[in-house]
Amino acid sequence: MNVELLELCSINDVQPDQPYRAEVDGAAYAVFEVNGKYYATQDHCTHGPGSLSDGYVDGQEIECPFHRGRFNILTGNPTAAPCTIPLKTWEVMVEGDRILLGKPRAVNSQ
């Protein structure tokens, strides 16, 4: 099956300590750089109205600015209350300086 890749942003848009909010076709994604690799999750927290791209990055975790719940950036799994529902995550590819969104990852996978 051939999956169409969507361009999210440039690698220059994403900093290790600050996620980038990418909006593509009406959907919002949070794009992260962790240890030189790029990751994409849904931008909207699964617990409340928080935007994860406005959150605080701590290692491999993102803290939602709304209720301070946390998620693992690599897997989307919740790591701190009050968050209990995993984030949707996608495969990410880099072509030149472009970050591209691939297919969705299975829930609870890395």
Topology:
Elements: E1 6-10, E2 20-24, E3 27-34, E4 37-42, E5 56-58, E6 61-63, E7 70-72, E8 78-80, E9 89-95, E10 98-104
Antiparallel strand pairs: 1-10, 2-3, 3-4, 4-9, 5-6, 6-7, 7-8, 9-10
In which range does the helix fraction lie?
under 10%
| Annotated CATH homologous superfamily | Rieske [2Fe-2S] iron-sulphur domain
Helix/strand-derived category reads: mainly beta
Calculate the terminal CA-CA distance, rounded to whole Å: 21 Å
Low-pLDDT runs: none
**DSSP strand (E) fraction?**
over 45%
- What is the topology, as strand order, of the major beta sheet? 1-10-9-4-3-2
- Counted up, domains total 1
The CATH class? Mainly Beta
CATH topology category name: Rieske Iron-sulfur Protein
Multimeric organization: single chain
The arrangement of helices and strands along the chain is: EEEEEEEEEE
Taken from the alpha-carbon principal axes, the silhouette is: globular
The overall pLDDT, averaged over residues, is 92
CATH architecture: 3-layer Sandwich
Helices, by number, come to 0
Radius of gyration: 13 Å
| Record field, number of beta strands | 10
Question: How would you characterize the overall build of this protein?
Answer:
The protein is an all-beta fold and 110 residues long. It has one domain (6-104): 3-layer Sandwich (Rieske Iron-sulfur Protein), CATH 2.102.10.10. Helix content is 0%, strand content 45%. The strands form two sheets. A six-stranded antiparallel sheet has the order 1-10-9-4-3-2, with no helix packed on it. It is globular and about 40 Å long. The relative contact order is 0.22. The mean pLDDT is 92.
